Amino acid sequence: MKNILIALALTFSLGTAASAFDMGDMSDSERQTFRDEIRTYLLENPEVLMEAIGVLEAREQDEQVANDVALAQTNAETLFEDGHSLVWGNPEGDITMVEFMDYRCSFCRRAHPEIAELVETDGNIRIITKEFPILGEQSVLASRFALATKMIAGDEAYKMISDALMTMRSDMTEDSLSRLADEFDLDTGAIMGAMSSDDITTVLSENRLLGQRLLITGTPTFVVEDQMLRGYLPLAQMQEVVARVRDGG
């Protein structure tokens, strides 16, 4: 990887000089002299390589941001108006944030209270939760249980169960999930029976396909209007993102 970066940096550093003349017109000895001079210069000024690598990385980052904006805009309807994801916070908020999450993801768990604080303190964020179980069978089971709760008991119960799953320390099994439903005095039998329904399978399938279109490979992933945030961000940085998007930046 280091050699690749150096080669790219050399291409960047020498691009202007190389374009000023055709090295094919040089003799073998002239080309060797030119190479020796460049090598000597870079050995004496290695910071040029680091500067070039920095510019290259910045360009790649800008390209990634532009690509993510295009992906978010292309998939906006499914992201923000799919008809089945939980919408909470301020339904009329001026900023919409979508979170793709997995109940067994440690960074999702870390972000969970911070997102709640962000929504509460800001007061003008519409947030959408998308079940995106990618960490094994227990993740899928937990998502099916949460969605079955939504189907049987409604959004409020779903939000309570979702919050509880984010702090659950035991394995997520049918027995532990059944006990959790009992603790919230829900219709446990109906919820457990609905977990394998075709409707829930469809929701998870649509979320997975959306994630594939957005090139999401991990959780949490956030979409703030048309800005994609791939991975966990501390509360302060998330607040900065929201402020920047709100200001049109």
Explain what you see:
By secondary structure, this protein is an alpha+beta fold. It folds into two domains: 2-74, no CATH class; 76-246, Glutaredoxin, CATH 3.40.30.10. Helices cover 64% and strands 10% of the residues. The protein has eleven helices and five strands. Strands 1-3-2-4-5 form a five-stranded mixed sheet, with helices on both faces. It is elongated. The model is unreliable at 1-9 and 12-19 (pLDDT under 50).
Put the structure in a nutshell.
The chain is an alpha+beta fold and 249 residues long. It has helices spanning 2-19, 28-44, 47-74, 76-80, 106-122, 137-153, 155-167, 174-183, 188-194, 198-213, 235-246; strands at 86-89, 95-101, 125-131, 221-224, 227-230.
| CATH T-level fold name of the largest domain | Glutaredoxin
Gross geometry: elongated
Low-confidence stretches: 1-9, 12-19
Widest beta sheet: strand line-up:
1-3-2-4-5
CATH 4th-level superfamily of the largest domain: Glutaredoxin
The SSE order reads HHHHEEHEHHHHHEEH
CATH class wording of the largest domain: Alpha Beta
Strand content: 5-15%
Number of helices: 11
Overall number of strands: 5
Task: Estimate the helix proportion, in percent.
Answer: 55-70%
Tell me about the largest β-sheet: 5 strands, mixed
